[in-house]
Amino acid sequence: MYEMHFGVPMSGAVLNTINTRLDARTVAVLLQHSGSKLVFVDQTTLQLIRDAFRLLPSEHPAPHVIVVEDPHDAPPNAETLTLTTYERLLETGDPDFEWVRPVSEWDPIVLNYTSGTTSSPKGVVQCHRATYLIALDWLVEWTVPPRPTYLWTLSMFHGNGWCFPWGMAVVGGANVCLTRVTAATVYAAIARHGVTHLCGAPVVLNMLAHASDAARKALPPGMKKVQVLTGGAPPPAAVLQRVEKLGFEVSHGYGLTETAALVVSCSWKPEWDELPESERARLKARQGVRIPSLAEVDVVDAETRRSVPRDGVTTGEIVLRGGSVMLGYLHDEEATRAAIRDDGWFYTGDVGVMHPDGYLEIRDRSKDVIISAGENISSVEVESVLYGHPAVNEAAVVARPDELRGEAPCAFLSLKDGAAGTVTASDIIAWCRERMPRYMAPRTVVFRAELPKTSTGKIQKYVLRNIANEMGPTRRGTPTTTNGSGSSKM
Amino acid sequence: MYEMHFGVPMSGAVLNTINTRLDARTVAVLLQHSGSKLVFVDQTTLQLIRDAFRLLPSEHPAPHVIVVEDPHDAPPNAETLTLTTYERLLETGDPDFEWVRPVSEWDPIVLNYTSGTTSSPKGVVQCHRATYLIALDWLVEWTVPPRPTYLWTLSMFHGNGWCFPWGMAVVGGANVCLTRVTAATVYAAIARHGVTHLCGAPVVLNMLAHASDAARKALPPGMKKVQVLTGGAPPPAAVLQRVEKLGFEVSHGYGLTETAALVVSCSWKPEWDELPESERARLKARQGVRIPSLAEVDVVDAETRRSVPRDGVTTGEIVLRGGSVMLGYLHDEEATRAAIRDDGWFYTGDVGVMHPDGYLEIRDRSKDVIISAGENISSVEVESVLYGHPAVNEAAVVARPDELRGEAPCAFLSLKDGAAGTVTASDIIAWCRERMPRYMAPRTVVFRAELPKTSTGKIQKYVLRNIANEMGPTRRGTPTTTNGSGSSKM
């Protein structure tokens, strides 16, 4: 996958990385939509591609397949032997081949499908220029020194790993890749290779924070701080505090597939070092300020499109413009026009506030806002408090219909190992009421062994919303509490 | 000057910084050529501008003048009071003024005259895009952390201080400026402000290396290494060794006014740390490899325009192309076409070799090559050996006519304090012959109290070439040695 980020564009083609955790049906939809001509696939994912090919309509020719053999895998089976392998393809290559330079720097380099897209896939097209700018920007923003050792916990199929395949090449980095990302493999890789940098969604931070002592004991005692860049959701304060104590220095940013990578960075001020731990965590959970190649970030009123006051309270839609905003969605002019409007701004669909010091803070994806008795409740804010509870492993808050209020917050929780049975729904609600306005506290708490996740590790809120809807409305009076079966998997 | 780098482009104008050490005649030529409408000048340089204005032809309207008052200067005199001052201008400003964004990123942002240009000034025009790219690149290449403290020993009028005015703003740097750059003021500023980074030509390194103990004693004992970026000429190995011992970490690059800043960097490999000191200095004196925004660097045969072998020996002209090559010379299409040729490459006029590991090493400016008995002699190589001599302060080697060989190397030297009289021309020639092929060793050695310099601190080789020519040809037989009067100033 790393080599593909160079070889594919250098051959004049466009790279479309596909999430290997998708099902065959979705893969078939994406292959059709993208019109891919050639598929590189490793042995472990070959069956998925075969299944996807079978689902392609007869008029759609299946792409050519090149199998990438992993020397650590079992020897190739009879079937693979009949296919072209990556290594055999390379052997037929011309060492004097002159790489195909883009005619314009605005030519496409990658196509990235956003998640949750089986019905109408949204294919984000990015150009050479955008990925160049953002790759450089993050080297500056993160002060990446020459020859870092970078651990891939973030997948390269996830927004091209936030453009770090290219960034690591600029600084001559070593790339450490894992077949499986678990606390044990991550800690072992850090210890073995002297990892200096890694990126990951907060779910990875959470994994690092709650690793067993056995997994963690691999770390050398005098280990240098590992730089961690996180994004995709605000890191819960409690998780931040924990991983920083374990030897990780966390940077935090915000971006979307449509912006090629994170484009807002919670740039840290030295004077904040002196603040109490909880205050530092609160500041670090803010998304931050624009990075150089983003011309502007703003929060606007959805109706008037005018900037909301910079008061840290008034919510609005987060809008962006600058060097790494996508060219558009492939084969979807309507969606492109809805996203990049006639005023030249990209409308993210995310809800945020602008603080007086110019730092952006995300409040919610628009659809995740809970509107209860006329009040907007940010599910992220409620989750942040829930993560502070000592027994909580993961938390997700969605709207549940409410007889009186229209909607009310409903919390889905998984507990830490050994914490099951030690805490009740009422405890959780009481915990929240002590820490936030009463109307914001969940009226329903559901315990689960695990929360449902997308293939990229994001909690599937739409699944939880469906469950909450099926529960029916909460009634007047005392809150409803539900203890879900500990064994229910979703 | 720092504020001008932002205010001028943000008002929609183009910034042309003028070297304050130029004479009135040259300043008048530049003002005419550029068609400047407005001149910002500080009180100490006001007389220079007045003199220049008097030399403008009557049909050329003198630009409007804004005086920048320095609070440390004497109180403004009666004359200044009648002029608009910068502070008074700012008071009339509109706080709601919306800054003028360039229509295209290819719009010009700066005009920089290359040195030695009174007869036909060469005005290099750079665009927003180029300066943006190079400013970002050097933050990456030099691993500049957030909030550095940057000392201005390099003038901002010298190629816009290699674009660091903008770069420092990106990382929130503090800018420390000096009225006079001397060893004492530089060491004092480092100690007082905790300087982390500075740029300077090798002449600055030399100044730091040979500072008196009194000047150096300001440095705190546990001072963190100061990062120094040098370019403009290869740093002599002996000077490099000395300043690194004094607490400076030197990075080295190569560029021209036409490329906005340094575009080739002697990217350091950790394995080189283990080499002997002299070998490390030799490697660090090489110019290096391209930085990200430079698409390509090559050394080509002047006739065939084809790449020379990467053998570290075959010389050719250094050619460049990429993101920060100038738009062209102002009002001079012919010079522009001669520099940026129909093949899309910028021809630097500098002579270099390409090493097998892809590192560029400059051998000479084309006109500085000495051709002796059919052999090309790099004056830089000879100077490098001369700098290694313990008594030598500064060295410059030029061609002197030679009866037998056509040309022969002639060395001009200034000696370190107290070294006058301790070394003879024969000693110097013997020193060189021990360390290089005989044909390369100087046949003439001239001692001077000081070597002639341009206003930007470069040694004026053309002055020395004239002197060497006037000496007449060296004759067959033993080398000619000349001990110049220690008091002659040039």
Q: In order across it, which strands form the biggest sheet of chain A?
A: 7-6-8-9-10-11-12
Count every helix of chain A, treating DSSP H or I runs of 4 or more residues as helices: 17
Report mean pLDDT of chain A, rounded to a whole number: 88
> How many structural domains in the coordinates of chain A?
3
CATH T-level fold name of the largest domain in chain A: Rossmann fold
Instruction: Please report the first level of CATH classification, the CATH class of the largest domain in chain A.
Output: Alpha Beta
Could you give the distance between the termini of chain A? 30 Å
Largest sheet of chain A: 7 strands, mixed
**Beta-strand content estimate of chain A:** 15-25%
User: Quick one: CATH superfamily of the largest domain in chain A?
Assistant: ANL, N-terminal domain
Helical content of chain A (DSSP H or I, runs of 4+): 25-40%
| Quaternary structure classification | homodimer
Catalytic activity (chains A, B): (E)-4-coumaroyl-AMP + CoA = (E)-4-coumaroyl-CoA + AMP + H(+); (E)-4-coumarate + ATP + CoA = (E)-4-coumaroyl-CoA + AMP + diphosphate; (E)-4-coumarate + ATP + H(+) = (E)-4-coumaroyl-AMP + diphosphate
Protein name (chains A, B): 4-coumarate--CoA ligase
Region (Disordered) (chains A, B): 470-490
Organism (chains A, B): Eleusine coracana subsp. coracana
